[in-house]
Write a structure and sequence with these properties.
CATH architecture of the largest domain in chain A: 3-Layer(aba) Sandwich
Radius of gyration of chain A: 21 Å
Strand content of chain C: under 5%
Mean pLDDT of chain A: 86
Family (chain A): Belongs to the ABC transporter superfamily.
Order of helices and strands of chain C: HHHHHHHHHHHH
Largest sheet of chain A: 8 strands, mixed
Order of helices and strands of chain A: EEEHEEHEHHHHHEHEHEEHHHEE
Function (chain A): Involved in beta-(1-->2)glucan export. Transmembrane domains (TMD) form a pore in the inner membrane and the ATP-binding domain (NBD) is responsible for energy generation.
Number of helices of chain A: 12
CATH class of chain C: Mainly Alpha
Strand content of chain A: 15-25%
Helix content of chain C: 55-70%
Distance between the termini of chain A: 32 Å
Chains: A alpha/beta, B alpha/beta, C mainly alpha
Low-confidence stretches of chain C: 1-8, 302-307
Shape of chain C: flat
GO molecular function (chain A): ATP binding; ATP hydrolysis activity
Shape of chain A: globular
CATH superfamily of the largest domain in chain A: P-loop containing nucleotide triphosphate hydrolases
Radius of gyration of chain C: 27 Å
CATH architecture of chain C: Orthogonal Bundle
Keywords (chain A): ATP-binding, Cell membrane, Membrane, Nucleotide-binding, Transport
Pfam families (chain A): ABC_tran, oligo_HPY
Oligomer: heterotrimer
CATH superfamily of chain C: MetI-like
Mean pLDDT of chain C: 84
Largest sheet of chain C: none
Distance between the termini of chain C: 52 Å
Number of domains of chain A: 2
Number of domains of chain C: 1
CATH topology of chain C: MetI-like fold
């Protein structure tokens, strides 16, 4: 059975410009120990999805519907008290900007300790020992000294390691990483990605990785789901998705990213662009959400929103025209 | 032979910082510490490096948004860094800028028409009011925005469209060089491709030279002719694109390239994981500034600072190693 | 939903259609224009309406059943509020209702004038110190010096040097308020100077005066407007205090501070003499502050944290 099952998740917001259907009918699952990447551009609803899983959406102006079953329980039906016990304990989260997610006036040791004391009922000494253990686990040198330091004394990469240490302190079953390396420099990103790969093997938590960087996806995820304008448009294993993307949006996305080393092999000089803009989610969309930018668009697409259908082995996409069956790369 | 369009000679920019609340202004951030390069007409030179390496400061020094500490910035044989205000105005027309953030680089209270008219008026490029209107309208065509959008304000546009307005403003002055300071970094993948293609088209159409400042190595490889890799205020390697991306010589360039995650699952990648973080530019390490993280550092690196030396026809490397390390190949 | 479509138009065979999902939120009708703005920001509406009423009272004081507010009537001293004297009479037999209504003129004149003059002066000083580095040190140290003295003491000292008149009260309070405004403007100017669009304008060859006029000033107006309302409120209170201690408007001019000062001795036995002007002062200051808070939230939600 899947660890997390999300069914028809809808998260809407009331805004001055109308109802923003930020996430509209997204279903997916995450198995135990598996890494699922949610990919898409800004405004596609990937971060709102993750905030909805944690029930961190303020209501109002937001409203969540659907079902989020975690280990058999629907998180949307839980009372607030039980949800608090799950947050940071069974499900924890790392954010893009480590500086703003750490409390600047508390030492990093205290911040790890508090999570442990609150969720695991450890006493101060035991929590301190565990905090040092966690800092060692995430590769922070001199952890005994570092537990006494404040976030501003650490570099960006170190802070992200501390965030990971806090997130993993209670042995969560699910870790949600929202753009964990986006704010970091490329050499530091390499360090953090390597750490995440190591930890995946050692800790065994399932991971939902939210990112716009296809390189990061290829590096650590096993399965990918592509979101566009609040909907899921494609889902497949990483290898399958990169080898044979079916949805025109995914194809466009992969074509729009230049690859390091491509100019050496004399590949094409021009990037594939996806024309146009993301649609305004505050206006109801009839038909396919990608119709306005799609090269394959027909009247059928403008009229009937395509449902997700099986296009290949464990490969689904929401497109009326995407090829079915085996596709050669 | 005519001089290169832009020459930067031993450019230095140090910012004073206060040590503590009441401390003397004795410490300095060595943001840029002796950088030299040239840009030819119609050429793209990229400055790459991680945050804090001083690449944006170089761009701002060329625009003369502040006075430099030492060194020279020479545009077509004339010095920008000590130009008089009137001479500077004439040079400003020839060097324009596109910034990273499409939201804060446009004045929220101005209409697009006024944003584009500002440089044209400032440099007296239009002969009449009708000419001004025609120029503004044709700029919109150039960056592929509808002319009807001229009466709107920036907040009515998406990020990509704003970046087009920023590019149109830069083009309005009819420049020869555009400094693109992380000009596509804040954009989404699909929009980024649109803007990259636009910049390349414009470069071909107008024969523009570009100083492309970026941390995105894949985009740089796609855009550029030559690359200068910066680390802690210095250039560590300067070479044509082929040399940099096919056979990087400096250990830092190798590490940087190897660290980029590739969108190819299962790609046989062996990234060089550098130790630790970039040291502070307030107290840069002695000798080679990279020695604290370099996997190949030896005694000489800690004491003596390596100078840029030619290793190929147009390739320059600042490293004491005689042969480039063979640790990593793209 | 899919069924209804299918009946009107035959669907191609094998077409997979996304399931219809419910709407979670009912759209609310968004009103545009002034009405919509006031509905969205009730504090602006309430504060603004109160202030407009008070201004109208000040302007039309002669037509609101008032008598000459300075007319003495020794026979009718210290009458309690009644049908003839709505707010009663003071120790000299003057009608308090008339005096309070006329007093609105003084308070509002002082408040609005100080807001305008202090904003203008503060804007000028703030822009200069934000742009001229050598002037910045001198101006800001001078402002620090002024700020070290409580504004009310500074105003008292300045009034001691001059003759009591409404004009001098405005001048004294303006001088006392300038340091705070210029500090605010300077900080806004310094943060605006860091904006890329200002750098872009420099690169576009725009001269400094035009940069200030076109790129800096329009973007300082919103925080200035909010600050001006707070200055207005504080100036009205300062004026009342000055008049109360006899250092403000001359006793011949009815102002709320004067009326309260005159009723001070009789506070225990004739509280209404102090009560009515005090109530009007409180309501006016409240109205202006409500307006200011509302404008602050409306113009820039982020500024709510800064101020």
């Amino acid at each position: 059975m899947a660890l997390l099952e999300v069914e028809n998740l809808q998260t809407h917001f009331r805004t001055p410009g109308g109802i923003n259907r930020a996430v509209d009918g997204v279903s997916f699952h995450v198995n135990e120990g598996e890494t699922l990447a949610i990919v898409g551009e800004s405004g596609c609803g990937k971060s709102v999805t993750s905030m909805s899983l944690m029930r961190l959406i303020p209501e109002p102006p937001g409203r969540i519907a659907g079902a989020i079953r975690f280990a058999g329980r629907d998180l949307l039906q839980l009372p607030d008290r039980e949800m608090r016990a799950i947050r940071g304990n069974d499900i924890s989260m790392i954010f893009q900007e480590p500086m703003t997610s750490l409390n600047p006036v508390l030492t990093v040791g205290r911040q790890i300790r508090e999570t442990l004391m609150m969720h695991q009922g450890l006493d101060k000494q035991a929590a301190e020992v565990r905090a040092i253990e966690m800092l060692t686990l995430v590769g922070i040198p001199e952890p005994k000294r570092r537990v006494r330091e404040y976030p501003h004394q650490l570099s960006g990469g170190m802070r992200q390691r501390v965030m990971i240490a806090i997130a993993l302190a209670c042995n969560p079953k699910l870790l949600i990483a929202d753009e964990p390396t986006t704010a970091l420099d490329v050499t530091i990103q390499a360090q953090i990605l390597k750490l995440m790969l190591d930890l995946k093997r050692r800790v065994g938590a399932a991971i939902i990785l939210i990112t716009h960087d296809l390189g990061v996806v290829a590096e650590i995820a096993e399965r990918v789901m592509v979101m566009y304008a609040g909907r899921k448009v494609e889902e497949a294993s990483v290898a399958e998705l990169f080898r044979a993307p079916r949805h025109p949006y995914t194809q466009g996305l992969l074509g729009a990213v230049p690859r390091l080393g491509s100019s050496l092999s004399g590949a094409s000089k021009r990037l594939a662009e996806i024309p146009g803009q993301v649609p305004d989610l505050r206006k109801p969309i009839t038909g396919c959400v990608f119709a306005g930018r799609c090269p394959l668009v027909t009247d059928l697409c403008r009229q009937y929103a395509p449902g997700l259908e099986e296009k290949g082995p464990r490969h689904i996409a929401a497109c009326h025209y995407a090829a079915k069956g085996a596709v050669a790369a | 032979m005519s001089p290169p369009l832009l020459q930067v000679n031993d450019l230095k920019k140090h910012f004073p910082v206060r040590a503590g609340l009441f401390g003397p202004r004795s410490e300095r951030v060595y943001a840029v510490d002796g950088v030299s390069f040239e840009i030819e007409r119609g050429e793209t030179l990229s400055l790459v490096g991680e945050s804090g390496c001083g690449k944006s400061t170089v761009g701002r020094a060329i625009l003369r948004l502040f006075d430099v500490t030492a060194g020279q910035v020479i545009l077509d044989g004339q010095r920008i860094d000590d130009a008089s205000p009137s001479a500077l105005r004439q040079m400003r027309r020839r060097v324009q800028v596109v910034f990273q953030d499409p939201f804060s680089s446009l004045n929220p209270r101005m209409r697009v028409r006024d944003i584009l008219a500002e440089p044209i008026r400032n440099f007296g490029l239009a002969k009449s009011a009708a000419d001004l209107d025609a120029r503004v309208a044709s700029l919109m065509d150039t960056v592929r925005l509808p002319r009807e959008a001229l009466n709107r304000r920036p907040h009515e546009f998406s990020g990509g469209q704003r970046q087009r307005i920023g590019i149109a403003r830069a083009l309005a002055a009819e420049p020869e060089l555009i400094v693109c300071d992380e000009a596509v970094s804040a954009l989404d993948v699909s929009v980024k491709a649109q803007i990259v293609n636009l910049l390349q088209d414009l470069q071909r159409e107008f024969g523009l030279a570009l100083l492309f400042i970026s941390h995105d190595l894949a985009i740089v490889e796609h855009m550029t002719h030559r690359v200068a890799v910066m680390y802690l205020g210095k250039i560590v390697e300067l070479a044509p694109k082929q040399e940099i991306f096919a056979a990087p010589s400096h250990p830092y360039t190798q590490a940087l390239l190897s660290a980029v995650p590739l969108p190819e699952p299962g790609a046989a990648r062996s990234p060089i994981i550098l130790r630790g973080d970039v040291p502070s530019p307030i107290n840069p390490p002695s000798g080679c500034r990279f020695h604290t993280r370099c996997p190949f550092a030896f005694d000489r690196c800690r004491i003596e600072e390596p100078q840029l030396r030619a290793t190929g026809s147009d390739q320059w490397v600042a490293c004491h190693l005689d042969e480039p390390p063979q640790g990593w190949r793209p | 939903m899919t069924d209804t479509i299918a009946t009107t138009q035959p669907l191609p065979a094998g077409l997979v259609i996304a399931p219809q999902l419910p709407e979670l939120l009912q759209p609310v009708r968004i009103r545009r224009g002034i009405i919509g703005f006031l509905r969205g920001h009730p504090t602006v509406a309430i504060g603004g309406a109160l202030l407009i009423v008070l201004i109208l009272i000040g302007i039309f004081a002669p037509y609101l059943g008032t008598v000459d507010p300075t007319a003495l009537a020794p026979a009718k001293r210290t009458r309690a509020p009644s049908a003839d004297f709505w707010f009663g009479t003071d120790v000299l037999g003057r009608d308090i209702y008339s005096r309070v209504l006329y007093g609105a003129r003084v308070s509002l004149t002082v408040g609005l004038s100080v807001a305008i003059f202090a904003s203008a002066a503060g804007l000028a000083i703030g822009v200069v110190s934000g742009f001229v580095r050598w002037a910045d040190g001198i101006l800001m140290r001078f402002m620090d010096g002024l700020m070290a003295i409580p504004p009310i003491l500074l105003a008292i000292a300045l009034m001691a040097l001059t003759r009591g008149s409404v004009g001098n009260v405005i001048l004294a309070i303006t001088i006392a308020e300038i340091p705070r405004v210029s500090r605010l403007v300077r900080s806004v100017v310094l943060s605006l100077r860091e904006q890329p669009y200002v750098d872009a304008a420099v690169a576009c060859g725009t001269r400094t005066p035009m940069i200030i006029l076109r790129h800096i000033l329009p973007n300082t107006l919103a925080p200035m407007l909010v600050q001006a309302t707070y200055i207005c409120a504080s100036a009205m209170i300062t004026e009342a205090i000055l008049s109360f201690i006899g250092a403000g408007t001359p006793p011949t001019v009815p102002s709320w501070g004067n009326i309260m000062a005159e009723g001070r001795a009789l506070w225990q036995v004739k509280p209404y003499i102090v009560f009515f002007p005090a109530a009007f002062l409180s309501v006016t200051v409240l109205a202006v502050n409500l307006l200011g808070d509302g404008l602050r939230d409306a113009l820039d939600p982020r500024m709510a944290k800064r101020l």
